[in-house]
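Exercise 7b. C-alpha cells:
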C-alpha cells in the first residue's frame, strides 16, 4: 500500500543536526496520521507515494520544523516563585506559571528551565530544536488505512517530537 492522505504510517528515524550529531533515534516504530497534524508538512510531502520498506533522507530548515529561535520567549524569573525541586531541563506549562511571573510570558507555551541561578531561573518558551536545521533519515515500517476516528481527530495521538510526559506527582512540571 502506498502512502496517501489519509492513511497511517509507522516510522522509525534517525534525527541529526547539520553537523552530524545525533539528536534522536527511534528504533521502535511509531504511527503517524498522514493528512492530519502529526507530522511536519515537508515530511508528509516527502512520504507521499512511498510504501513500506522504503527509506528517505529529508533536510528540514528551521522554518520547516520547529521554527526560528525567538529570544523574546526567554524569561528571567525569581527563583523563589518556584518549588525547591526545580531542576534544569524540567518543563513548565505556561498556564501553570506563578502569577507573579512576567505577564508577557505566553500561557500557551511550554517553558524549559535552561538555567538556575541563586536568585533567578531562566525559562525558555522555544522548542528545544528551534533554530536548528535538521537531517532526518526515515524508514517506513508499515502503511495502513486510517480509521474514521483517526481522521476525525486529525491524529493517531502522537505529534512529531512532543514534549515529555508530566513528571510524577506534579501536574505542571515536566
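Sequence design result:
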Amino acid at each position: 500500500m502506498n502512502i496517501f492522505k489519509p492513511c497511517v504510517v509507522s516510522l522509525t528515524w534517525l534525527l541529526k543536526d547539520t553537523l552530524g550529531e545525533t539528536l534522536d533515534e527511534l528504533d521502535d516504530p511509531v504511527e503517524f496520521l498522514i493528512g492530519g497534524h502529526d507530522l511536519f508538512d515537508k515530511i508528509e510531502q516527502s512520504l507521499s507515494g512511498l510504501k513500506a520498506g522504503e527509506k528517505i533522507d529529508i533536510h528540514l530548515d528551521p522554518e520547516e520544523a520547529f521554527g526560528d529561535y525567538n529570544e523574546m520567549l526567554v524569561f528571567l524569573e525569581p527563583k523563589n516563585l518556584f518549588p525547591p525541586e526545580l531542576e534544569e531541563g524540567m518543563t513548565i506549562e505556561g498556564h501553570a506559571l506563578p502569577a507573579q511571573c512576567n505577564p508577557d510570558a505566553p500561557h500557551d507555551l511550554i517553558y524549559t528551565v535552561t538555567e538556575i541561578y541563586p536568585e533567578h531561573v531562566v525559562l525558555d518558551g522555544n522548542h528545544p530544536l528551534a533554530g536548528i536545521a535538521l537531517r532526518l533519515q526515515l524508514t517506513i515500517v508499515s502503511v495502513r488505512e486510517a480509521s474514521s476516528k483517526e481522521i476525525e481527530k486529525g491524529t493517531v495521538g502522537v505529534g512529531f517530537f512532543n514534549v515529555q510526559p508530566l513528571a510524577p506527582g506534579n501536574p505542571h512540571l515536566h
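Instructor comment: The longest helix spans residues 41-47. The chain has two domains: 7-66+131-153, 71-124.
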